[in-house]
Design a protein that fits this description.
Two copies of one chain form a homodimer. Chain A is of the alpha/beta class. Chain A has a single domain, classed as UDP-N-acetylmuramoyl-L-alanine:D-glutamate ligase (3-Layer(aba) Sandwich), CATH 3.40.1190. Chain A contains ten helices and 15 strands. In chain A, the strands form three sheets. The first copy, chain A, has a six-stranded parallel beta sheet, sandwiched between helices. Chains A, B: One of its GO terms (molecular function) is ATP binding. Chains A, B: It holds the Pfam family PfkB.
Chain lengths: ~300, ~300
């Protein structure tokens, strides 16, 4: 089973405005609500390509109930820990000119709620894969992923780390099956900047040396690199209209896992990863199965090293 | 029975920010949610001072459910018409410098939902008072209050009009029991500006001539004027710290109605109106009973004319 973990999910409230005046009452145009969170997006994509997963994390209040109902209606299996506090609501203001996010802080979690969540990790099996994705609510403490990784290792299960910065580096000694920094995140981690793909290669390899089993470095429209213990592969960027990049990275991770959990073939998994990430970026919400398969046929991967 | 009508209620989502940068991701500080809508606020104040009321209007989706649960938990009687579309969510950004509102459009209402709401007006009794407060969702049409007033009149019941501009003027021939423009609204209606209270008096009297039974003109910290068919009264502004003016006007209307529906004495009702409006403005949320009574003792009313 694949478990996706979203410690700090959000109800995303999109508001479109024609003009925005600070300090005034603004009449908003179209509004839209969606269930946000990297692990939730991963579970949605896994479900779309027919891979079984279970979404874990914390949900509370009416906003949490909305997300739970949404997952149920979309036949996405979940086992969120119910909390007393409210799941946060993030506001996304959209205009022709720009997008402004107001991201709310996470909920207050009680000791009993945290313990209830932790217990789920005692039942992991050896062939389970757990995906850790996104930020941590303050009340869990900055080392919460380390605690979870220790639990995964105790059960001899596998994990994927879809976070950025120091938390990503901290996870490497525990050998995550996959990490997926994008170019900018890799630049930030190693305090450098890349002028071409060639320059990225030694840094991707360095992440392998530091403990990652597989590394995908995504470069938006410029394609992506896969680093395995044997080889380095390059997937060309696919041409198309960018519609909504939110969740494209999560979809990439989901695509990799859906295939890898079956075939254990990282190259096949990379192909599915690129198809899922790209078709998501080219769709307003989730892509259709047909569109995903169309994009899959366009994936072009070559050996680099 | 007093009925309050909120055609376009809202879940108000308050987000506090330290600094705001458009086009960026902003981390928001404290957030807070409240059940918004003028009629709902009136019902809350009526309940606080022990007057029975029933809140009417349209509620739908998870945001509507939140408001319904809130009213239930606060023992406020309501009979909202359930709708398929979502009750709107308004976002209120607060900083030290300013407050910015993003007010969403109202829900789409279906013919069957509108009819279900309208039927409630066929059961009004002669001693019922209906308060119409706030804006109208687009799908109801601009003349919806006129249709509702006709229904109130058919049942020989009484109504109060707590709206602004042309809609207020349009209601006058049907003799509302009370209207409550503030100074700025009165200036806008008659396209004039007032330098002192003296100048307001002929315009308040004009509203009586046009059909209103009682008129309160509120002037924030400068007090308020009551126009009845016999007299004009002035209530001095009460000194105190303004904490949250949202709902102060609605509380003023509620105070008037709570007393008037019992004693039919507009002067006593005015006293209660001032106490409710002022104690609300001096409180973050609703005032306590004790604080309201303390403010009541400070109300100072004199005959002007």
């Amino acid at each position: 089973m694949i478990y996706t973990v979203t410690l700090n999910p959000a109800l995303d409230y999109f508001m479109n405005y024609e003009e925005l005046a600070l300090g005034e009452v603004n009449r908003t145009g179209k509004t839209q609500i969606s269930a946000g969170g990297k692990g939730i997006m991963e579970s949605r994509m896994l479900s779309l390509i027919g891979a079984k997963s279970k979404a874990l994390g914390f949900l509370g209040g009416f906003s949490g109930q909305y997300i739970k109902d949404f997952l149920n209606e979309n036949q996405i299996d979940s086992d969120f820990t119910e909390i007393e506090d409210l799941t946060r609501i993030n506001v996304k203001l959209k205009s022709q000119e720009n997008e402004t996010s107001f991201d709310a802080a996470g909920p207050k979690l009680q000791e009993s709620e945290i313990n209830h969540f932790l217990e789920k990790f005692d039942h992991l099996k050896e062939d389970d894969i757990v995906v850790f994705a996104g930020t941590i609510p303050k009340s869990l403490g900055e080392d919460f992923y380390e605690r979870l990784i220790a639990k995964v290792q105790k059960q001899k299960a596998t994990f994927v780390m879809d976070v950025d910065g120091q938390k990503l580096l901290d996870s490497l000694p525990a050998h995550p099956l996959l990490i997926k920094p994008n170019r900018e995140e890799l630049e930030a981690i190693f305090e450098t900047s890349f002028k071409n793909n060639e320059q990225i290669i030694p840094y991707g390899q360095k992440l392998l040396e530091m403990g990652a089993q597989n590394v995908i470095v995504s470069m938006a429209g410029d394609g992506a690199l896969l680093f395995t213990n044997e080889k380095v592969y390059f997937a060309q960027g696919i041409k198309g209209e960018l519609k909504n990049s939110i969740g494209a990275g999560d979809s990439t991770v989901a695509g990799f896992l859906a295939e890898y959990s079956q075939s254990k073939d990282p190259l096949l998994a990379f192909r599915q990863a690129i198809a899922c990430g790209t078709s998501k970026a080219f769709s307003d919400d989730m892509p259709s199965r047909a569109f995903l398969e169309e994009i899959y046929k366009k994936v072009n991967i070559s050996e680099v090293k």
